[in-house]
């Protein structure tokens, strides 16, 4: 192969720039020409592309966001859109396309594969860590670090005022950011999709837990981590419900897109660097419709469809420790 193209698609993730840099540097190393399409799949449709050399990606790995821009592109689900993308890729003589994004972007990649004969390689770029086949996704470590930092700050004021807080974190439909940040910051309660699917929490049970934890510990501060989409109306609605129905003062805090910015964590820069090179090497190896992943420290190739059809489970032991040992939701043998 001689020419490869790269794009970043869907929700941006810290480390996407580092992955892009790695793709370009590896491409140069192997004597390939590297093109980038801007604004994700939209750029494929608009034929909005640039040639990238090593000099173009200097000093970008320390920044979140993506210098080639990301976007959502509703139109891409249509067959004629994928046909147009295939035409534009062929006109430029692209042999392999590297897609840095999340599960939506990989669905788009499989859709494109129905209409285009070139090789397609995915690179997992999402803060949610919700892709099967890789130990971590690019951006996840940074999002957890940001959420932990916010939880630490909330703890200071919660502690001073003996207050209950609900901190809403991202994660799409997975509890990775929620569980990891809750554990890293020692929060009292988690409302995660995996727990909610198992046994949905009622407000009454939550109030019981708050009161029990406060009584046992002799401390009023109670910091709860709520994964997005896990409560109707989110953290604000739950806080209002606690106040209105149980006269329990509670403050909501929505982290939102703060979780995607600032300097990428070392783990994300390193993961992105390894995966970017791995993706180029998979392309050179003739592979297609696979995601470049890292499993137990070894580079792996995961069929793209597996990445969203199979499930990446939460670490059961961490979940048990955080949920049943540190802040037991059931009364334990000591009558607590
Ligand atoms: P992420 O990659 O972060 O999960 P999205 O779910 O927003 O982000 O998906 C990114 C883009 O991928 C969408 O805007 C759309 O262009 C494309 N895409 C998602 N699902 C499909 C699909 N089933 N068929 C074709 N394209 C899709």
SSE topology:
Layout: E1 3-8, H1 16-29, E2 33-37, H2 41-46, E3 49-52, H3 79-91, E4 96-101, H4 103-113, E5 119-124, H5 140-161, E6 164-169, H6 176-185, E7 189-191, H7 193-198, H8 203-217, E8 222-227, H9 234-246, E9 250-254, H10 266-284, E10 290-295, E11 298-303, H11 304-309, H12 316-326
Parallel strand pairs: 1-2, 1-4, 4-5, 5-10, 6-8, 6-9, 7-8
Antiparallel strand pairs: 2-3, 10-11
Helix pairs in contact: 1-10, 5-6
The structure holds adenosine-5'-diphosphate (ADP).
Describe the structure.
Pathway: Carbohydrate degradation; glycolysis; D-glyceraldehyde 3-phosphate and glycerone phosphate from D-glucose: step 3/4. With 336 residues, the chain is an alpha/beta fold. It is 43% helix and 18% strand. It is built from 12 helices and 11 strands. The strands form 2 sheets. The protein has a 7-stranded mixed sheet, sandwiched between helices. A 4-stranded parallel sheet has the order 7-8-6-9, with helices on both faces. Helix 1 packs parallel to helix 10. Bound molecules: adenosine-5'-diphosphate. Adenosine-5'-diphosphate binds next to helix 4. Adenosine-5'-diphosphate (ADP) binds at residues 9-11, 41, 72-73, 76-77, 101-105, 107-108, 111, 126.
